[in-house]
Amino acid sequence: LVLAGKSFASSPQLPSGRRLPHWKSRPPSAKKKPGASVSPRAKEPIFPLRASRPLLARAAVAVFALGFVDAGYSGDWSRIGAISMETEELLKVSAFLIIPLCLFLIYSISGEEGAADGD
Fold first, then answer.
1. What letter does residue 9 receive in the DSSP assignment?
2. Residue 8 has what pLDDT?
3. Angle between helices 85-116 and 53-73 in degrees, nearest 10
4. What are the boundaries of the region Disordered (predicted)?
5. Are the beta carbons of 58 and 106 closer than 8 angstroms?
6. How many CB atoms lie within 10 A of CB 34?
7. Mean pLDDT (10-residue bins), the chain, 119 residues
8. Helices marked H in 74-116 — which ranges?
9. How would you class 98 by CB atoms within 10 Å of its CB: exposed for 0-12, middle for 13-18, buried for 19 or more?
10. Which residues have C-beta within 8 Å of that of residue 105, sequence separation ≥ 6?
């Protein structure tokens, strides 16, 4: 296949469309045997790192709180026109209420995790 401008030209070195699909042309030795057992590694998850739900909830609340701080105090959002100066001032004032609320939520969620473990 050769790209020439906006059109494609087929090359004789490439396989034609008359061949069998790759899943039909497997050699018999590569096919799975009916009595073959599944290895224990096949049952392991692909991504072995796991995070608990309380940890993810605390992280989400922290990102929400940091978003208020960023939008209210950085000045970048009003400078690029994403929010107005009045909205930025409102976010600055509301950050004084949101940040303590988020800190309370973060600590209360962590307290629930310890209670669930039986500590």
1. E
2. 54
3. 160
4. 1-42
5. yes
6. 5
7. 54 56 59 59 72 89 91 84 88 90 90 50
8. 76-79, 85-116
9. middle
10. 58, 61
End-to-end CA distance of the chain: 66
pTM passes above 0.70? no
**Dist CA 82 CA 94 (whole Å):** 18
Residue 119 is predicted with a pLDDT of: 43
Q: What's the rounded Cα separation, in Å, for the pair 70 and 85?
A: 14
Cβ atoms within 10 Å of 72's Cβ, excluding its own = 23
Query: Containing H/E element for 70?
Result: helix 53-73
pLDDT confidence of residue 48: 76
Radius of gyration for the alpha carbons in the chain, expressed in angstroms and rounded: 29
Those residues whose C-beta lies under 8 Å from the C-beta of residue 103, and which sit 6 or more positions away, are 65
